[in-house]
Amino acid sequence: MSLREPALPAAEGDAFATLLRRFRAARRMSQLDLALTCEISARHLSFLETGRARPSREMVLQIADGLVLPLGSQNALLLAAGFAAVFPASPLESEALGPFRAVLQEMMDRHAPWPAILADRHWRVRGANASAAKLLAPLQAHGENSLIRMLTDSPVAEAMIANLPEVIHEMRGRIALEALEAGNDPVLRELLEALEAAGQRRPLPGGAPRRPLVPLVVNAPGGQLSFLSTIAHFGTSEDVTVRDLRLELLFPADDATRTALRELAA
């Protein structure tokens, strides 16, 4: 009688092995690096990546922790190995997240008259207060709800955003980091490629000094509006949807913008 664990069916084993290799490659870790981080043998990790060994549920989570994967990617790795997802992914509109939606709405309302934008992990707009909705309206004229695509594809972006090359360059760096952290997210890769292409079309001015803070400068009918932003993440939840949200709060970068927004609100 054999004491060895039965092998996974080829499809399941290949799915896990393939995804594990992709996540490790995205992290730019060697097998030895990951094995040392997870405190397992490099031989065993090699067997997992080739489908010669079957991971336990605990091993999948141990490897996911070593790769510092976001919750959604941890679920994907578990599913590929034939296990149920651990972390819930409640729809933002669900009853379970009702109290959290109320908190988000209060944060956006209290931020007025400064703009506040709620976005998911792929930078799709999921909510906005009144001043942010007015700011985004020209960029959303064709039904676009991706903040990244508004920058790279909107026909009015160049006329509306006075420092568009700067904003694209700053956002490209941000998305590059998020794509690295996500490990293997094709949507983030596509967004990064779009930003890189837009950056080539609209390069930064040669020889221009880098500013320590990159504002968003908007050409408005009454004059330019200048904003600085801060982004809030919600890290205390184990729900994938909540963990992936970000709330971008824009603040006036000068007195003229502060005055203009207060007058518009009044």
Task: Describe, in plain words, how this protein is organized in 3D.
- The chain is an alpha+beta fold and 266 residues long.
- The chain has 2 domains: 10-80, 434 Repressor (Amino-terminal Domain), CATH 1.10.260.40; 95-265, Beta-Lactamase.
- The protein has 13 helices and 5 strands.
- The protein has helices spanning 10-26, 31-38, 42-50, 57-66, 71-80, 98-111, 130-136, 147-153, 157-160, 164-182, 186-201, 240-244, 255-265; strands at residues 116-119, 125-128, 216-220, 223-233, 246-252.
- A 5-stranded antiparallel β-sheet has the order 2-1-5-4-3.
- A hairpin with a 5-residue loop joins strand 1 and strand 2 (125-128).
- Helix 4 (57-66) runs antiparallel to helix 5 and helix 8 (147-153) runs parallel beside helix 11.
- The N and C termini lie far apart (81 Å).
- The model is unreliable at 1-13 (pLDDT under 50).
Please state the second-level CATH architecture of the largest domain: 2-Layer Sandwich
How helical, in percent, are the residues? 40-55%
The overall pLDDT average reads 90
Number of helices: 13
Q: Tell me, briefly, the overall form.
A: globular
Widest β-sheet, arrangement of strands: 2-1-5-4-3
Low-pLDDT stretches are 1-13
Structural class: alpha+beta
Number of domains: 2
The helix/strand series, from N terminus to C terminus, equals HHHHHHEEHHHHHEEHEH
Distance between the termini: 81 Å
The fold-level CATH name of the largest domain is Beta-Lactamase
CATH class of the largest domain: Alpha Beta
Number of strands: 5
| C-alpha-based Rg, rounded | 22 Å
Largest β sheet strand count, sense and barrel closure: 5 strands, antiparallel
Strand content: 5-15%
